[in-house]
Amino acid sequence: MSRAAERLRLLINHLDRPSSNIAAAPTSAQTSTSTSTHPHRLRYTFDNDLLTPEQRLFYEENGFILIKNLVSEEDIDKFRNEFERICRQEVKVPGLVVMRDLAIVKSEFVPDQKAVSKLQDYQEDPELFRYCALPQILNYVECFTGPNIMAMHTMLINKPPDAGKKTSRHPMHQDLHYFPFRPADKIVCAWTAMERVNRQNGCLVVLPGTHTGTLQEHDYPEWEGGVNKMYHGVRGYDPQHPRVHLEMEKGDTVFFHPLLIHGSGMNQTQGFRKAISCHYAGADCYYIDVKGTTQENIEKEVQEIAARKYALDNEITFTDTWAFRGRLVQGERISL
User: Fold this and answer.
1) Which of 29, 102, 245, 246 is the most exposed place for a label (fewest CB within 10 A)?
2) What count of Cα atoms within 13 Å lies in the side-chain half-sphere of residue 226?
3) What are the sequence ranges of the domains in the chain?
């Protein structure tokens, strides 16, 4: 038996019930008063026989797990074709947010994919949303959320070649900053490389183990060249914390916890670095009021954008914007 498997076996043997009944404990971001009756309980993963003991232990300790060659080349090529159709304005998708890099916006507009840095909220596009419902993706998602699964946030990232302003960087952040629902431990992101991703074209950078902390204050970093809209960053994280650059091949998929601090560097190549992702949550998660918390700044920004987009003044709430986007992909829709 491997060292990781032996450690996991010993951990499970501390429990008062069989390992098949292990459940995720409440997250520290949900409440500071919750306590676990089983202090050795595996907190971040469910036992459904898909993750190996080594994989479960790795995720528990690091907050992410990389699965090689999970999405087929055929599917990725179909997603790329749909992205290009949207960029050429051949298809209109309700609710879709088309984002452009700050440096591109200030340059001459090009009506194709070179003008687009990200598609957000593609849940009404049948082809792109098919990614969120891929059985091989959901099989892994269930290890973190349980069997009732909501797709809450969808993105296709088209990181452009940096125009010399360093605006293609994404500051270090925690995804939970954007989400008014809990518990954090039943939220997970699936992020799939649509081509080879490396340090040269701006791969993901993660700080292993930071998922065990709490949600930190975020705001726009004061960077030269500026920073793109909605790209908030963590204030005051330890820059000396060990980091991992997630170099991936086409079809590789990383699953990570919403409190994991991560970001990405500049794209120093001439090509566009593409990835497709979806944030999932257990359907029994619930909405919270973020007023008076560190998330109040993102709530205000999202409400202002939604009000302009739908001409609703301030009638739309932060929770409304998420309830509108969330879609059931497996099981029963419970509270989200």
Assistant:
1) 245
2) 10
3) 8-24+39-50, 63-330
Q: What per-residue confidence (pLDDT) applies to 30?
A: 36
Alpha-carbon span 6 to 283, nearest angstrom = 33
Euclidean distance between CA atoms 201 and 195, whole angstroms? 11
Place of tokens 């008062």: 16
- Yes or no: domain 63-330 corresponds to CATH 2.60.120.620: yes
Q: Does the structure show a pLDDT above 70 at 167?
A: no
| 164 Cβ neighbours under 8 A, 6+ residues apart | 103, 225
Between 285 and 299, the more confident residue is: 285
Q: How many other CB atoms are there within 10 angstroms of residue 159's CB atom?
A: 25
Please report, for residues 138, 169, 278, the alpha-carbon distance to residue 223 in angstroms, rounded to integers and kept in the order given.
37, 10, 28
Q: What's the pTM?
A: 0.83
298-327: buried (b, 16+ CB within 10 Å) or exposed (e) per residue? bbebbbeebeeeeeeeeebbbbebbeebbb
